[in-house]
């Protein structure tokens, strides 16, 4: 495939400016504002020449103490995980009810629905459910789930126990209330305001925030602001079939475009609309740089250069493999361009920018994990006093048998966190990403593994730190550095 991107040549100077690291004072100012807005107590971001940015303790932390809760800049739930978990598309907390979560999964499971099926419903346009009450909003979701099932495979449920359809439907529509489920109340499922039938939210606040942040351009519903909903559906299908990191890149580009439009509208309000063309070009680049700022901070390399070589690819085939990855990114970019292209933000649709965005995610992303309340519910039932447990299990045991091992599946995805991404690696880290019982959404939660003194750098491990020295170094080479932490220095000399 010819992967020469004409925008790379046409917009070479603008691309160079966008990819040039911001000056240190600007970076410092950005992170100080970010830390203040997040109300993070006790950390600061510093820059040094050897390791770039790093996060440092501004006070003492005790072992197990919360260091940071970092909201997502852009994140996605893995498409395959959507079959198991219904979560808010913005904050990723579980929504609906325990009954809906269980009934929905059993319904799709009984039809043999897989992540790659869903009869192309992901990305298809559906009528918007204009609801007023929480019950109506949940019912709207049930109707969309039934549409999904109507198109799905009618294969068996892979040997799992099959329950009567009426029982499953009663769980989904709220007619059957499970014992003790009110102990695990979840926010109602609120439909996407654009009518895509794919995104659901825990609140109107999250729905509005996602719409303004990126979803208005990536919604396939009737109220979408995409250039072409048909092209957008093709882009989404391609990402689902190949690599869902393209969905994350699309969110990043949409996020930047919408920020740019907002900044320009604010700047031009009350200004002379007949601006000199040269001045307008300078203004547009300046506003694009400002809109791009949250993404400009992250460390970047082109995706096809930094992606790990798969185990089944021989070293002699590495060049061909990396060219295939570049071709794959180019195909994805062309599909995205057809869907949401904005002439004033043209440099964002260059292969150079696209590759660096994906590479930044490859190098900096953290797994997005939110524990399932369904697992908590069944554990709660199991821990009841014997008489209560026996009564409850008369209803719940058949559901647990039908769900099988999948009852405990958590929300899984990937996300970019601005502050967490500044944390450097150590094979003997003093902190880790760890969700506590009270952490119910997709924010990155970093806790201290041991006491951390004021002024000490806060480090995490990018890999499994218990691996042998050479294996660790090989894995870290994909991140572009050789680890020189105390553990590695000691092991290298022994």
UniProtKB/TrEMBL annotation:
Cite a single GO MF annotation: zinc ion binding
Q: Residue ranges of the SET domain?
A: 41-463
Q: Which SUPFAM superfamilies match?
A: HIT/MYND zinc finger-like, SET domain
* A cellular component term, taken from the record's GO annotations: nucleus
What Gene3D superfamilies does the record tag this protein with? 6.10.140.2220, SET domain
What does the entry give for GO biological process? callus formation; epigenetic regulation of gene expression; lateral root formation; root regeneration
Any matching Pfam family: SET
Domain named MYND-type: residues: 182-219
UniProt KW keywords: Metal-binding, Zinc, Zinc-finger
Q: What is this protein called?
A: SET domain-containing protein
Organism (species): Manihot esculenta
